[in-house]
Each structure stands twice: as C-alpha cells, then as structure tokens.
Amino acid sequence: MIACFRPAEIDLPPYEPEVVVNAQFTPGKNWEVYLTQSRALGDTTIRWISDAEVLLFENGVLHDSLVELSLGKYGGTQSPIAGKCYRIEVRIVDEVVSAEDCIPLTVMIDSTRYTIGRSFSINDNPYQEQSIYFRDPDSVDNFYEVLGSWEQSDDPSALAEGYQSYFFPLVNDHFFADPLFAGENHVFISRTEGSRTVDINGCYTPSSVDIWVILRTTSETYYRYRKSWTRQLFNRNIIFESVDGIYDLMFLSEPQNVYSNVEGGLGVFAGYAQDSMVLTYIK
Questions:
Q1: What is the pLDDT of residues 210-229, one digit of tens each?
Q2: Where are the alpha helices (DSSP H) in the chain?
Q3: CA–CA distances in Å: residue 183 to residues 131, 136, 138, 155
Q4: Is residue 241's pLDDT more than 70?
Q5: What is the spatial distance between Cα 213 and Cα 200, in angstroms, rounded to a whole number?
Q6: Quick one: pLDDT at residue 202?
Q7: How does DSSP assign 64-75, residue by residue?
Q8: Which among 15, 78, 228, 268 has the fewest CB atoms less than 10 Å away?
Q9: Helix-strand-coil split of the chain, %, nearest 5
Q10: DSSP-based three-state secondary structure for 174
Q11: 3-class secondary structure, 89
C-alpha cells in the first residue's frame, strides 16, 4: 500500500465545554467523584471544576453532600451499599447535571484453582492456568469483570464480547455478561505462558507470593462503559504505542464514543460490588 499526505487547514467551530462527572463506586469505600470540563480537539489541558455543589441521593433520599478534597476531587463521609440505587446532582452556578445507577448484589467466589504444566504453548512452555468458580444468580441479568486474571481465555462469554483478539497479550482482566450461563454454576478459566521453573524433584513450582483474583459484579452502566472505553482505547492506538508491527498503524478503526449516563454532561456514574480470593495451588 502506498499513500501520501497533504497538509490541510480546517476552521473548527468554537467549542463549548461540558461538565464531566466521573465516579465508579462500590460498598466499603467512601464516595469519590471527579469533576472536570471537556476539552476541544488538540487541547491537552486538564480543567478541574471547583466550588461545585455535589449531592448524593440513596433510593430518592438525600444520602450525602460531598466536599472538595482537592482540585476537582469531591468526597464524602458515607459509603454506598450493595442493592441500593443512587443519584448524583452536580450544581455549578445555574447549571445542573445528574446521573443515576444501582449497585448489584455481590456474587461471591465459591473457590479457585491454580495449576501449572497441564498444557503447553507452541513454544513448549507450560501454561499457568487459573479457575474461578461462582454461581450466577437467576431472575436477573448479571454483568461481570474479572481482575487479576491472565490474558488468554477460551471462556465463551468472554470471547463473545469480541475484545480478547484486540488486546492479547497485554490486558489481564476480562468482562462479560451472563446469557450463556444464566442462573447456573460457572467456572471462568484463564491462562498465561509461564517459564520452566521446577523444583529439585522436577515439578513445576507455583508463584512464591499469593495471587489474588477479584470478581466484580457490575451494573449494566459499568459494563457498557467498560466495553466502549476498551474499544476507544484500542482505536486510539494508546496501549500498543510501544509495540512493533501492525499496532504501529494509527487510527485502526472508526472513532468510538465512550458510553455516558450523565444527563446534561459527560462521564460515567457507575456502581459495582466485588469479592476476592487467593488462588489455591493444585499440583
């Protein structure tokens, strides 16, 4: 393919900045909300918003009034609760932006498993494999994110999202919905290529430190934001900027708008619950 470039001057219309609200909240952590202004194309300045009135409502009742802890960062003395719905209102002079979301109930990890050397890569290196067992609650749509997992997974629900082929082998968390295992027991398996580390008996040895995995049960808002953010990150060629080959190509796909549930502005206000467990090594 041969191409050439020609400079072009384009007069862009004046840009009107919008309020950006960013908060991902979970039980056990006090409220933290970040307020900024959106930026015009080419503008790299972060414009934090100060002196805003930030109110939080729980199931329609005033829950907390946040104070500015540092430039653009607002916090409170309360923490959200799983199973509750929350609404945020940000008031700046005569402008009001708002958003709402609910925290799903926590889905607990039943057990974990960590094995080495039960299968091998094309480089003849042993795979380290982790398994996370949990039961999906029925009668409700569930959305998940697994953190601390390894980059490769053949889980049909993760593959159905269509993102693993984008990021292998640079991303170590996965997100997926439950239509393929709704109301059933499920095991999420991921693996990574390890080195041939053996003990004096010739057996593969596990990591010397505890390996934690986190299972997040997320709202649909969180899930939709996570999907759009992932695609946009890839399309911007951000995470592959240090990788040689095809990933050096700029603008690999069309522009991608990041999902927002903020009314009158931009950003995301999304809840999740989570459980964690140390992997259990199985010889």
A1: 778 899 999 999 999 988 88
A2: 156-159, 164-167, 220-235
A3: 19, 5, 4, 17
A4: no
A5: 29
A6: 47
A7: EEEEEEETTEEE
A8: 15
A9: 10, 40, 50
A10: strand
A11: strand
> What's the mean pLDDT in 127-141?
91
What is 229-280 written as a DSSP string? HHHHHHHTT-TTTT--GGGGSS--S---PPP---BTSEEEEEEEEEEEEEPP
Number of C-beta neighbours around residue 130 at 10 A: 23
AA letter at 181: F
Amino acid (1-letter code) at residue 244: D
Angle at the Cα of 156 (from 154 to 161), degrees rounded to 5?
Answer: 100
| 70 Cβ contact partners less than 8 Å away, ≥ 6 residues apart | none
DSSP string over 139-150? SS--EEEEES--
- Considering Cα of 174, then 180, then 182, then 186, what sign does the dihedral take? negative
Task: Give pLDDT, residue 163.
Answer: 65
| Residues 6+ away with beta carbon under 8 Å from 3 | none
The mean pLDDT of 106-132, rounded to a whole number, is 84
More confident residue, 14 or 205: 14
Tell whether the model's pLDDT for residue 209 goes beyond 80: no
Q: Which residues contact 85 (CB under 8 A, 6 or more apart)?
A: 58, 59, 100, 101, 102, 103
- Residue 77 carries which side chain, given as an amino acid letter? T
Q: Is the pLDDT of residue 193 over 80?
A: no
* DSSP class per residue in 94-136: TEEEEEEEEPPPPPPEEEEEEEEEEEE-TTSPEEEEEEEEEE-
If you ran DSSP here, which 8-state letter would residue 111 be given? E
Tell me the residue type at 84.
K
